[in-house]
Amino acid sequence: MLKYGYARVSTIHQDLQVQLKQLEKENCDVIYSEKYSGTNKKRPEFQKLMENLKEGDTLVVTKLDRLARSTQDALETIKDLFNRNIKVHVLNMGVIENTPTGRLIFTIFSAFAEFERDMIVERTQEGKILAKQNPDFREGRPKKFSRQQVNHALSLLEDHSYKQVEGMTGISVSTLVRAKKKSEAEKIITKV
After folding, report:
1. Residue 94: strand, helix, or coil
2. Apex CA 51: angle with CA 49 and CA 55, to 5°?
3. pLDDT (tens digit, 0 to 9) for every residue of the chain, 192 residues total?
4. Nearest C-alpha neighbor of 158 from the set 180, 178, 185, 173
């Protein structure tokens, strides 16, 4: 009988370390981890884990939302695990018992986890709509260099190479090339 841990984060920018440390502290024999959105049905490491779990094993996750995409998915996963006599331990909830009370509590917590995810998505969308009402709103990463700095760098290109200008201004060659193409395109449009 083995204790399997499963850690998941939704994006490549998130860090798995906190979950992995918690699972190690729980003395998991084998830990599966991946960076996949919970909304993605194809989670390869989770599928491998599900195939390797045997009767009497224990599955450990740090939080309920690491396990499933929705309440329905969570219920199906837990039902499958219970039918195979596999224990489920959610660290912030405890061991989920295969009893009417255990299944009820799990269902309620699953519903709350799904509700919380839905609310986060809704608030994010509302925030974007509100932000887009600002005329100065620009989606994406803010510009590193001002228009004036880029124009100065472009003027330096008349007497220097791209590499030399990059060294003088700190503006990368790729940014300079894009800015020059954009500037030339704007000159053509102005002439027309």
Report:
1. strand
2. 95
3. 899 999 988 777 788 899 999 999 999 999 999 987 656 667 889 999 999 999 999 999 998 888 877 778 888 888 899 999 999 999 988 888 888 888 888 888 888 878 887 888 899 888 888 888 888 777 777 778 888 998 899 999 889 999 999 998 999 999 989 988 888 877 777 665
4. 180
Catalytic (active-site) positions: 10
| Helix ranges (DSSP H) in 53-172 | 71-83, 100-132, 147-156, 162-169
Here the tokens at position 156 are: 């330096």
CB 176 within 8 A of CB 162: yes
| CA-CA-CA-CA torsion sign (159, 163, 166, 168) | negative
